[in-house]
Amino acid sequence: MREEAISARQFTALALFVTIGDSLVILPGTMVSLAKQDAWLSMLVGLAAGLPVILLFLAVHARGAAASPVVKLKRICGPWFGGLFILPYIAFSLFLSAGSMRILGDFMITQIMPETPGTAVVALLLIVAAAAIRGGVEAFARAGEVLLLCFLFVFFFFILTLVPQVDFHRLLPVCENGPGPVAHGGLLSLAFCFIEIMPLMMLMPHVKANSRKEMRRALLIGAIAGACALLIVTLLCITVLGPGHAERHMYPTYTLAKKISVGSFLERVEAMIAFMWIISTFMKLGVNLFAVHLGLAQWIGSRSYRTLSVPVAAVTLALAANFTDNMAYFNHIVTLAWPIYDLTMLFVPLFLLGLLLVRKAGKRG
Amino acid sequence: MRGAFGKFVLCAVLLTVLLGVTGCWNRRELNTLAIAVGMGIDKRGSEYDVSIQVVNPQVMDKKSGTNRSETIQFREHKATIFEALRKMTTVSPRKIYLSHLRILVLSEQVAREGINEVIDFISRDHEARTDFYIMVARGSSASEVLNVHTQLDNIPSIKVFDMLEGSEKAWAPTSTVRLDELIDALENDSGQSGVLSGVAVAGNKKKAMTQENIERIRLPGVLKYSGLAVFKQGKAVGWLNEEQSAAFKFIMGKVKNTVSDVPCPAGGKLVLEIFDTTSAMIPKARGGELSIALKQKLFANIGEVSCGIDLLNESAIEEIEKRMEEKHKRQLEETIAFVQRKYGADIFGFGQSIHRSYPREWKKVKANWSEAFRELPVTVSAQVTIRRTGTINNAAIPSS
Questions:
Q1: Which chain B residue has its CA at the smallest distance from A261's CA?
Q2: Which domains can be identified in chain A, with CATH numbers?
Q3: What is this model's ipTM?
C-alpha cells in the first residue's frame, strides 16, 4: 500500500480547524467571564504564548527521520519505556475527542434540541468520524479542504452582518482589573487553541512538504488564521453584546448570531453558526481520533490503523457521556483543570525534543 | 458479501437508516404549535397571572370569511411564570411557542414590585429571542392591553409592535426597549437603572375590548404609547412625561427624526423637523470632581410656519437656531435635574461612561453611585443647524 499523503494546503486547513475547533463557541464566553472586556487581550496573550508551542511541535517534527512522535519515542526508548510517554499522548487525544463531543452535545441540548438526548447527537457525529477513519488520512484532509470553503463563507457572512452593531466603547476601560484576569484568560486560549494542536503532530509525517520551511509555513498560517478568527469572534462578543451579556450567556457566539438582523428580513440565521461550529468541531474530532488510531497502531506495530475505528468511537461516546455531571462542574473543569492538564501534556514533546537533541549531539561527538 | 448482492444489501440498509435519521428528534409541526405573539404578565395576589396572545391560523386565512377572532388569549396564574405557562397546556390545545413573540407587557404592579424574575425566565428560555419589545401597561392590566381589538393590523401585539417601531423613528418621545437593551441597562454600572416604554388603553376601555371597537370608523378605544417607566434596581419608580421622554432619547443619541416647535420672535410658532442628531456624552474628572458634559448637535428643516418671519433673511434663521438651542438645552437640563432629584436613577448611563473613561475614579464612587448621581453636575450644550425651509420659503399666506 502506498504512503498516504496530504498537501501543505490541506494541512493548513486542518491546522485552522484544530485551532478553532470547539473553542469557537466555548472560549469567548469563558474568557469574558474571567477578563471581562479585556478578553480580546487574553486572546492576544494566548497567541503570543502559543507561537513558541507551535515552534516546539515543529522542532520535534524536524529532528530525526520523518516519522510521527509515537514512532520516534518507540524507536529511541523502546515500546515499554516509550509507552510511558506514548500512552498519555494517546489518552490526551482521546480525552480531547470526548471533551469536544460532550461540549457539542450540551450545546445542542441547551440551545437547539432540548428533548433530544445529547448522546444521539454525539453518536451521529462519531459514526461519521469512524467512517472518516476508515476513509483514511487522505480522504479526511481533502474533506477538510472542501469544508474550509463552507466554513469561511459562513464566517465572513457572520462578521459582515454583525459589523453594523459594533460599539467599540464597550471595550473600555482597558485592563481595569490588572493583568491577572487577562493572563488567566490567556492561559485558556493558549491551552485550548495551541496546545491542543498537539495531536496534529501525528499527521505531520503524511504532509508532502517540499521543505521544512513549507511545513512550518503551513502550520503557522493555519494556527494564526484560526487564532485571528477567534480573536474576531471574541471582539464581536464584547463589542456587540457587551461584556456583561457575553459573560452571562452560556454560548455567547450563538447569542451573537441571534442578534443578526439585516433590514429585518435577514434574521434568525443562528443555525448557521451552529453549522459552522459543528464543522470545526468535527474536524478537530477527526484529527484527535486519527492521532488515537495512528498512535495505537504505530505503538503496537500494526500496519493498519483502521481496525479499531468502531471500538474507539464507542469508547469516545461513553467517555463523552460521563464527562461532567453538570454545567457548574464543567465550568470549573474548563477554567482550571483542563488548561492545566493541557499544559502538563507539553512534557511529551519537550521530553522527545530533549532526547532528539541529545542523540544528535551524541552522534556528532 | 463483496459482490453485487452485498452492495445491494448495503444500499438497502443505508436507505432504511436514512428514513429514521432525517428530520428532527423533537420536531414540532406547524399545526401543533400555538404561536404566541404577545405575552402579558399581571399579578394576582402573590401569583403571576400570565396572558398569552396566540394567532388563530384559521382566521388568518382570508378566504374563510368567519367572524371569529384573529387571536386567542390564554390565561393562567401560578407562583412563577414558567409554571403558569406550563399550566396553560390545560387550557390550550397546542403548546405555546414563544419564538415569534412581538411584545411583552408587564402590568404596572409587576413593574413596581420588580421585573428581575420575568427577565430571568424570558432570557433563560431557549425559545424566546431578544427581538420583541417590552413595555409597561399604564392605567390598565397587561391582559387588557392584549385584549384591545385593533384595526389595520388585526393582531393587537403586532399592531403595538409596528406602532412602536414606526413612532420610534418619527417621534422623539417614543423609545422602544428590547430584552437585551433592558438587561444591558439594568446590569451595567448605572446603578441598575433603565427605562421601559409605557402603553395605555386610551378612550373607552370597555368598548375597546369588544368586537364593536373595530366596527366603527372612529375606534372607541385604542392602544397608545404613553411615556417611559423609570426603573431603579429592577423596580419601576415612576414615569417620564412626553417631554422628558423626548429629552431622554435625545441624551441617548437615539433620535432619528422628530419635530419640535419654537416660538417666533414676533409671537406665534414655527415647527422644525429635526432629521439628524448627534449626542456626545463626555465624562470629566477634574481634581477628583466628576462631571458630565453633554454635547448635542441637531440638524433641522423648517416644517411649518405660523408666524410672521422672513425666512429669506439669514439673521432670522440664526435667531430661530438660537431659540431652538435654548429650548433644547433647557428641556434636557430640566429632565436630568428631575430624574436626579425625584428618582435618583441613572437611566442615562452616566455611571457607565465614567467607568469607561475613568476606571480609577469610578471605583471610589461605585459603592454609593446612586447618591453620587443625584449630585453629579451635568452641563448641556446644543448646536442647532437649519438646513432647508421645505418646498416654499416664506409663509404660504403671510399673517398680517
A1: B131
A2: 8-356 (1.20.1740.10)
A3: 0.78
